[in-house]
Design goal:
Chain A: Pfam families: Ribosomal_S14 (PF00253). Chain A: Keywords: Ribonucleoprotein, Ribosomal protein. Chain A: Belongs to the universal ribosomal protein uS14 family. Chain A: This is Ribosomal protein S14. The complex is a heterodimer of chains A (113) and B (107). Chain A has 113 residues and is mainly α. Chain A is built from three helices and two strands; from the N terminus they run H-H-E-E-H. Chain A has two domains: 15-73, no CATH class; 74-106, no CATH class. Chain A has a two-stranded antiparallel ribbon with strand order 1-2. In chain A, a hairpin with a 4-residue loop joins strand 1 (85-86) and strand 2. With 107 residues, chain B is mainly α. Chain B has six helices and no strands. Chain B has helices at 5-19, 32-36, 41-45, 55-61, 70-84, 96-106. The longest helix of chain B has 15 residues, at 5-19. Chain B is elongated. The model of chain B has no long low-confidence stretch (mean pLDDT 87). The chains are: A mainly alpha (113), B mainly alpha (107). Chain A binds chain B through residues 9-13, 19, 22-23, 26-27, 29-31, 33-34, 37, 40-47, 69, 72, 74, 77, 90, and chain B through 28-31, 33-35, 37, 39-42, 44-45, 47-52.
Chain lengths: 113, 107
């Protein structure tokens, strides 16, 4: 959402609206993670009063969806694709192939035996 | 030989004190597993490469040094060519009256 978006672009990879959105989600999640974990602790702690735990549950459910860890999705940093992305190389399969064949990824070699 | 429960509890208490864990003989759910988890935010937020600096900032750092910004020069050259061919962007209207006049003409 626009209220979270950075005023100035701070990315140096391939950029499109989806990448900017995903990057925003990541930063928002990082910001709110301690708060979420604290609420989760209160909810899981059975020694606390039931009322407190219920309130924490409500509060956690009412937090913005961008603060959830399930929101960010790994996207290709070379082409912005959302599918077929290798998490280790942060690249979609075709970009990975092109860069690997060009020798731009250290330690990757075409198999041959 | 049966060991009394109080002895075992004592042992557990000492164990907890030594290894710095919570003494919880009734196995109540205290949610400590949430506190034990590491924060995943920094690694998740570091996925995309960040922009380190821009040409503008470099120029501001060294005001006396002359530098050649390839992209900016290309852009200006392109605009120059478009203008000379009469395909440039229209001039900005200074007043409200000027802009209104143009709109009426189009109709």
């Amino acid at each position: 959402m626009s209220q979270f978006r950075a005023k100035k672009l701070d990315l140096s990879c391939f950029i499109n609206s989806k990448i900017i959105r995903d990057h925003t989600k990541r930063k928002v999640f990082e910001q709110h993670e301690p708060e979420r974990q604290a609420l989760r602790y209160i909810i899981r702690n059975t020694s606390l009063p039931q009322r407190t735990r219920a309130q924490a549950q409500l509060q956690l459910a009412q937090m913005h969806c961008y603060t959830r860890s399930t929101q960010p999705k790994n996207r290709c940093i070379m082409g912005g694709k959302g599918r077929g992305v290798f998490a280790d190389f942060r690249m979609a399969r075709f970009q990975f192939r092109m860069n690997a064949l060009a020798g731009r990824i250290p330690g990757v070699k075409k198999a041959s035996w | 030989m049966a060991v009394p429960r109080s002895r075992i509890l004592d042992l557990m208490r000492v164990q907890c004190r030594i290894f710095n864990t919570t003494f919880n003989p009734t196995n109540a759910r205290l949610g400590n597993k949430v506190l034990r988890q590491r924060l995943r935010g920094p690694s998740i937020a570091a996925y995309y490469p960040r922009r380190v600096s821009t040409f503008k900032q470099l120029r501001q750092l060294y005001p006396g040094v002359e530098m050649y910004d390839n992209f900016e020069e290309d852009r200006l050259e392109h605009i120059q060519i478009a203008k000379s061919r009469g395909k440039g962007a229209p001039k900005k209207k200074k007043t409200a009256a000027e802009s209104r006049k143009n709109q009426k003409k189009k109709r």
